[in-house]
Amino acid sequence: MLAQYVFTSAEAPFRIVRHGHRWRALHGDREVGRYDQPEDAVRALREDQPEARLPRRLSDWRFLPEASLLHVAPPSASAMARLAAA
User: Within 10 Å of residue 5's Cβ, how many Cβ atoms?
Assistant: First the structure.
């Protein structure tokens, strides 16, 4: 999972997702734009959906840090053998 800020609304979630060195502003599955700073993405989402009453400060959004698959153990030798035989 990529690092992202999330604000949940009744109709669809608003997300600001790290995409390389830029940030994508999303309303549901619709991309509003790409920005160099997450604060710029907040402004764009607020302008795009003023009726949603999105928080102005990024600190009021829920931050989900980037999660890798480091917590998953590598496949066992028997699992790799089953995959190779399939």
Answer: 22
